[in-house]
Design brief:
Blueprint (H helix, E strand, L loop, with lengths): L18 H6 L8 H10 L1 H6 L4 H7 L2 H8 L2 H19 L3 H5 L8 E4 L15 H16 L3 E6 L7 E4 L5 E4 L11 E2 L9 E6 L2 E12 L2 E7 L7 H4 L10 H21 L6 E5 L6 H13 L3 H10 L1 E4 L10 E2 L1 H8 L10 H6 L12 E2 H8 L2 E4 L2 H10 L15 E2 L6 H4 L2 H10 L11 H4 L7 H29 L4 H7 L8 E6 L15 H8 L6 E6 L7 H14 L8 E4 L4 H10 L2 E4 L21 E4 L15 E2 L9 H25 L7 H14 L5 H44 L4 E7 L10 E9 L8 E9 L10 E4 L1 E6 L2 E9 L6 E9 L14 E2 L3
Parallel strand pairs: 1-2, 1-9, 2-8, 9-10, 10-13, 13-14, 15-16, 15-18, 16-17, 18-19, 19-20
Antiparallel strand pairs: 3-4, 5-7, 6-7, 7-8, 11-12, 21-22, 22-26, 23-24, 23-27, 25-26, 27-28
Length: about 850
């Protein structure tokens, strides 16, 4: 049969129900329980069958049911109420607007390789994507002027199932864009809005689709177009799939293509936020545009872009960073870097620590570090790890002065909380908790919730989790071709009243999914204790190329087949947002036992907080920051073991001890059928941790610490014909050229034998600055306590003041204020200084006097 053409058939939604389509095309529905309930009311079974996709749902529903709903006064009233909620949400004055009338205006573009909004838009793989989705949702809640930029994957991330041996198998399903809540962006001619990029020997085109996330538009690029070759149509086929060449192609489209897409839409972002190095090329495109539009030199344009860029690293290991060979970079950028006014060596140096290392790969994290004025890790501990990991990027600077901060991740409460807990909070905390989730005094209202009511809701969610798990297991076993006896056993798996522990995340070796299997005899005794039974639910995917991760899954499956484990341990295939939602809403305890300090943040355990779940965790990532240890249980004391096998043995025993001697006894100790001690621990977790570990707090921190300063810098540097940017670039070039001429001639320290707390030790130095002036530098005495290795820890610099000069020789004087006792050390250093530099390490220059 010859296909003459294609067309799309849309559902015939009655006029009275037209608001359903408006609701469906705004992802606000996925964190608004009232809207979800409205769709479910039309056809509950079909809503689940449609994968919670409102467009597919409306396109599949029986026309008769739509007609019945259009004539149902109760349904129409429900529809109008939900539509009013959306209208009110979109129009209301939000935090960003209320914060300051004088706040700089301008779009903040948030770039990520993946976005996890809901299970029906499968363009995410795990933590990074879920965080990006939650970030946009909170940005919408807070009213930020933000736009998201990502890729629209035809197949997304892989789907998972296990074969008869328990080995992970992968398959892909194609996303039907016409049945997703996506809107094609069109030009004035009514055609798809497209951007083009120069690839080796050809043009590659990408169209733009929009996912509306509350107030925030998320623009997604897709190369599956007839104008492209079959190979190029597949560039945006899969998330984290293909080879290195596919990866660089995707990152060019995300970074360079993303900026061009915004420009085509009439959006000129003032601030760009890069998540990991995936979108790092965007900085180059912003520079190119400024050079073209403003007639700037590379370094001048770079000052503007750097001052208005945020780079967030999400990995604690160098192996997690994308690198490309010089040959690959030359292949894709040989016609691009001349437009930046750079030669090949200068261009490749942007992605290297040592800019002159000819054979070194191009590192996308180094590009981000070099191009962003604001850099952060995603937890306090991860900030420390990142500063240590990249300390060679800023040689000569103490660890605490490496310009990498931290903003601890969070979760979007309303996306993860169960409908039952939401209703409970509405009754006892009032509706303000939804948008004021960072208000600690508001969470004090948890104290007023009766223990019986809080526990009843939690037990209901555990029952729902067990029922959901049984349904999933039955389907898994049927798909595997197992017999009736196995399927019947799946229907009775788990106990809806037993202590339930969840473990679900990416199956990477460092996350140690099988740590609890080290002593199977003891584990069996814990699980099958008649008086205090315990059960585990596992879920998670291993990367398709990670055989070690797949072996962990298979080991779990083989263990679960043993009679003593099969009813107490289960594995749910194809971990996604839906599975995660059931788990975090229903488990009693969330287990997190990575090998410290390899968990950058780890947001999965945060998702149980507003649902009343408790954490049992290694003090890694976010859990290392908790100030209320009795709000959960901590495994160990933060030891970092050199011998991994020994560390695994110690920490597995610690888990057994905690579960057997503390967790289970507290759970089963009942007074009038209520575990009073457990409920009090739930209250503490809800009150003290929920207010802190959420994305409303996180996005506010990004706004106050990075976005607002960056918006101000962008306007400042772009004003007066980019005068400040030009002057700063000129100043930096001069300082770099003259830096080697600095010389400290003498240092005199008035150091008495008996120095007491409160004394000031006077310091004087004669310094040659060459052609530099005192206003170009900061001369400091750097001092602090000494450790056993005679290294200064927690040091600080005190500026010395110029008192006289002659022939380029300057006398500097100052003092060391002694505020604590103990052995101290000091040194003298010189740093570049300029009022428009974001931080003192911006140039990477520091002069230390050798004595």
């Amino acid at each position: 049969m010859n296909l003459l053409g294609t067309f799309n058939v849309n559902p015939k939604v009655p006029e009275a129900l037209q608001a359903l389509r408006e609701l469906a095309f705004n992802f606000y529905w996925c964190w608004n329980h009232e809207t979800i309930e409205l769709f479910r009311r039309l056809d509950r079974d079909l809503w689940d069958k449609a994968g919670h996709n409102p467009i597919l749902f409306l396109g599949s529903i029986d026309q008769k049911k739509l007609e019945e709903a259009a004539n149902d006064e109760a349904f129409i009233a429900h529809l109008e109420r939900v539509k009013d909620l959306l209208d009110e949400y979109l129009k209301a004055n939000k935090w960003f607007v209320r914060k300051s009338g004088a706040m700089p205006n301008g779009t903040i573009a948030y770039f990520s390789a993946e976005f996890g909004l809901t299970e029906s838009l499968p363009i995410y793989s795990g933590g990074l994507g879920i965080l990006a989705g939650d970030h946009l949702k909170s940005a919408s809640d807070l009213g930020l002027p933000m736009a998201g930029v990502g890729l629209m994957y035809q197949e997304g991330y892989f789907r998972q199932y296990l074969n008869a041996d328990g080995w992970q198998q992968e398959y892909y399903t194609r996303n039907d864009f016409y049945n997703l809540p996506l809107t094609p962006e069109k030009g004035t001619d009514g055609r798809w809005l497209k951007i083009e990029l120069d690839f080796p020997g050809r043009k590659v085109f990408a169209r733009i689709l929009r996912a509306q996330v509350g107030r925030i538009p998320l623009y997604l690029l897709d190369t599956n177009l007839p104008e492209n070759s079959p190979e190029d149509r597949g560039i945006t086929n899969t998330l984290y799939g293909g080879d290195r060449e596919t990866r660089i192609q995707q990152e060019i489209i995300l970074g360079i293509g993303g900026i061009r897409a915004l420009k085509a839409l009439g959006i000129s972002p003032k601030v760009c936020h890069m998540n990991e190095g995936h979108s790092g090329f965007l900085a180059l495109e912003r520079i190119r545009l400024l050079m073209e539009e403003r007639g700037l030199k590379f370094e001048e344009a770079r000052e503007i872009v750097s001052a208005a860029s945020v780079f967030t690293t999400h990995t604690p290991v160098p192996a997690g960073i994308d690198e490309f060979s010089p040959e690959m970079m030359e292949k894709y950028f040989q016609n691009y870097y001349p437009k930046l006014g750079l030669n090949k060596k200068q261009f490749l140096g942007l992605g290297r620590i040592n800019e002159t290392a000819e054979n070194a790969p191009f590192n996308m994290a180094y590009l981000g570090l070099r191009m962003a004025g604001y850099i952060n890790g995603v937890s306090r501990l991860h900030g420390e790890v990142s500063r240590n990991m990249w300390k060679d990027f800023w040689p000569g600077f103490p660890g605490e002065e490496i310009p990498i901060g931290h903003i601890t991740n969070g979760i979007h409460h309303r996306s993860w909380i169960s409908h039952d807990m939401k209703s409970l909070f509405d009754r006892y905390l009032g509706p303000k908790w939804r948008e004021n989730s960072t208000d600690t005094t508001l969470w004090d209202g948890v104290q007023s919730i009766p223990a019986e009511e809080l526990w009843r809701i939690h037990e209901l969610r555990r029952e729902k989790l067990v029922n959901y798990t049984r349904r999933k297991l039955v389907q898994q076993y049927r798909n595997r071709g197992l017999g009736k006896s196995e399927i019947d056993m799946a229907r009775e798996a788990l106990d809806p009243t037993a202590l339930t522990i969840g473990f679900a995340r990416r199956f990477a070796a460092y996350k140690r999914a099988t740590l609890i299997l080290r002593d199977k005899e003891r584990l069996s005794r814990i699980l099958n204790n008649e008086a205090r039974p315990v059960q585990f639910i596992f879920a998670g995917k291993a990367h398709p190329k990670d055989d070690e991760g797949k072996k962990l899954i298979r080991e779990l499956i083989h263990t679960m087949r043993n009679p003593e484990f099969r009813r107490r341990m289960v594995f749910l295939e194809d971990y996604d947002i839906e599975v995660a939602r059931y788990l975090v809403q229903g488990v009693d305890v969330w287990l997190n036992n990575p090998r410290r300090p390899l968990e950058a943040s780890g947001t999965s355990g945060m998702k149980v907080l507003p649902n009343g779940g408790l954490n049992l965790s290694i003090p890694d990532g976010w859990w290392a920051e908790i100030e209320h240890p009795t709000a959960g249980w901590t495994i160990g004391s933060g030891e970092d073991y050199q011998d991994q096998a020994y560390g695994d043995a110690v920490e597995s025993e610690a888990i057994y001890d905690l579960v057997e001697r503390e967790v289970a006894p507290l759970f089963y100790e009942r007074v009038n059928k209520i575990p009073r001690g457990w409920v009090e621990r739930m209250r503490l977790s809800l009150m003290k941790l929920s207010a802190e570990f959420n994305t409303n707090r996180m996005v506010r921190e990004y706004t106050n610490n990075y976005y607002i300063p960056a918006l101000g810098c962008y306007d400042k540097f772009l004003g007066d014909h980019c005068g400040k940017a030009k002057k700063l670039a000129e100043w930096k070039a001069r300082v770099k050229q003259e830096w080697g001429k600095i010389k400290v001639e003498t240092v005199t320290v008035d150091l008495r034998d008996d120095v007491k707390v409160g004394d000031s030790v006077k310091v004087e130095s004669v310094i040659q600055l060459g052609h530099l002036k005192p206003e170009d530098v900061s001369a400091q005495v750097y001092f602090g306590p000494l450790n056993d290795a005679r290294q200064i820890v927690n040091g600080r610099g005190a500026d010395l003041q110029t008192t006289a000069h002659k022939d380029g020789r300057y006398i500097y004087q100052g003092g060391i204020e002694c505020v604590q006792s103990g052995r101290h050390g000091f040194g003298l250093r010189i740093l570049p200084k300029h009022e428009d530099m974001i931080n003192a390490a911006d140039l990477g220059l520091v002069y230390w006097h050798q004595g």
